[in-house]
Amino acid sequence: MDHKTNTTLLFSLLFSITYLITIATSKDLCNQNDKNTLLKIKKSLNNPYHLASWHPETDCCSWYCLECGDATVNHRVISLTIFAGQISGQIPPEVGDLPYLQNLMFHRITNITGQIPSTITKLKYLRSLRLSWLNLTGPVPDFLSQLMNLEYLSLAFNQLSGSIPSSLALLPKLSYIDVSRNKLTGTIPESFGSFPAEVPHLIFSHNQLSGSIPKSLGNLDFNRIDFSRNKLTGDASMLFGANKTTFSIDLSRNMFQFDLSRVVLHESLGVLDLNHNGITGSIPVQWTEYSLQILNVSYNRLCGPIPTGGSLQRFDSYTYFHNKCLCGAPLDSSCK
């Protein structure tokens, strides 16, 4: 056997070994049922370029916008996050056929229309649901209360209408609710004063909610509340208290009426925005003891001097102006 033949045989052997190694190391980890479902989702979204990596001949665990779990869940798809792409259509009902999904996100895709599909209720392991900056219509569905492992819910920046379902308060692990920037009406559910475990952040701003805040909310210690830019009325003072460790409260641009003189804050409060309401009374002297980072009480019916000392003079006049008879620095009007 000559040298040329030996070289050819050696090359062939090396090629075969390399090919076998490639085959062995490129084993498709993706579950076939998950892959089939994902390809249906891609087709339902009109095969967008954004999902070009979703090719049937490749391992779906390597596809863009996806994450597979480890061997303990047999590498099933646990996260689907589609965002900021040139995609149109509706949220495919097939998303409910990814049974191990923990995180589902459609975000900043304004050509996604229609309603939230009920098939989502099949996702028993779902922990985070973010359907935001889309163009969804219809209600905030009551069936979301079936997602018993849900911790994070954001439906912000859509065209959702109707009321906020009271059944969301039944979710035992929910720690964040954001339904801001929609067209929601009705009242804040009374049931939101009795969450079973952790008290969630409540972000309801930029809607058309009306009525008064349920007194039951006064029993809870929230971290963040944003009810701004609605049509809420009545007393909101129950949200405050020396025993509340709330960091941020935004009640601005509503029609609340209560006496600010009686409001006691906790030292943990860093953000307080009450502008554009009908709040009366005066700013308590005790507020000089707090280290507020953001404060706005403008456009109310407050009277009396702005207490001196502490951080209250650190804010400019825009924090205090357009009140009935508030006076003292940093306002130009002096107290008589």
TrEMBL record:
InterPro entries: Leu-rich_rpt, LRR_dom_sf, LRR_N_plant-typ, PGIP. Residues 1-26 form the signal peptide. The keyword Signal applies. The lineage of its organism: Eukaryota, Viridiplantae, Streptophyta, Embryophyta, Tracheophyta. It comes from Brassica oleracea var. oleracea. The keyword Repeat applies. Residues 32-68 form the Leucine-rich repeat-containing N-terminal plant-type domain. Pfam families: LRR_1, LRR_8, LRRNT_2. Gene3D superfamilies: Ribonuclease Inhibitor. It comes from the Eukaryota. Keywords: Leucine-rich repeat, Repeat, Signal. Belongs to the polygalacturonase-inhibiting protein family. It is found in: Cell envelope. This is Leucine-rich repeat-containing N-terminal plant-type domain-containing protein.
